[in-house]
Amino acid sequence: MLSAVIIAKNEEKNIQNAIESVSFCDEVVVVDNESIDKTSEIAIKAGAKVYRDGEADFSKIRNFAMGKTKGDWILFIDADERIPKRLSYEVLKQASSDVIGVQDDSMQADRTEVFRIKRRDFFWGTELRFGETQQVRKKGMIRLIKKNSGTWKGKVHEEFHTDKPVGQLQSFIDHYPHPTVAEFLQSVNQYSTLRAQELFEKNYNSSFVQIMLYPIGKFIYTYIILLGILDGAAGFVYSFMMSFHSFLVRSKLYLLAISPSRK
Predict the structure, then answer these.
(1) CB burial readout 201-218, b (16+ within 10 A) else e
(2) Which residues cross the membrane (predicted)?
(3) Are residues 33 and 160 in the same domain?
(4) What digits encode the pLDDT tens for the residues 172-184?
(5) What is the number of domains present in the chain?
């Protein structure tokens, strides 16, 4: 049995299409992270099993979701991601071969329980091939796992920890992030707050020099060194916004460090 997990917060614009893209799975579990829109209602109508969890720790939410699935295999996607047909066939091949005991050189499931899946980012009508997103485009992220093969860790940038061999699927997840400037700003503000808090809890500090230099360094790295410039206007906007994220993280970390409550 194959389960899909979608973590969502205020994703009424995306959740329907996300659920439809994993309709090949035997069940779809949506964990609503305290949405104030119609995310849950739309997900229920689309046939998903919906659970609510107000946890701010993304890894805890994913682990919670794993506990709600019935499948032997679990596919994780975000609400703004889509599973193309080619990838769905590959996922089904790996999951079903493990269940029915098929032996095939093209299948890794008989010896692998954890798989990375590469991701293509489509931003403002442009497929981003360079810049910050090229890492997940080339190396992928762990998204397909066999149940009980590991656990998620990390408050903001959650990672799957396992002692099992990690395989690599060949097809891509399609990602459609930040369709408007307002939504991009909202996302950057939200994630920078969480990241600053995470660093603060690990006893990191910030300074005026870091607030000033980190964003500049981030932009040079993503736009010039990682060749984001080759992605045109979309590459510039994406690189600029991620450098702004760096500015917000260091600024918020600085405020946390000097707050009276710390003394």
Answers:
(1) eeeeebeeebbeebbeeb
(2) 220-241
(3) yes
(4) 999 999 999 999 9
(5) 2
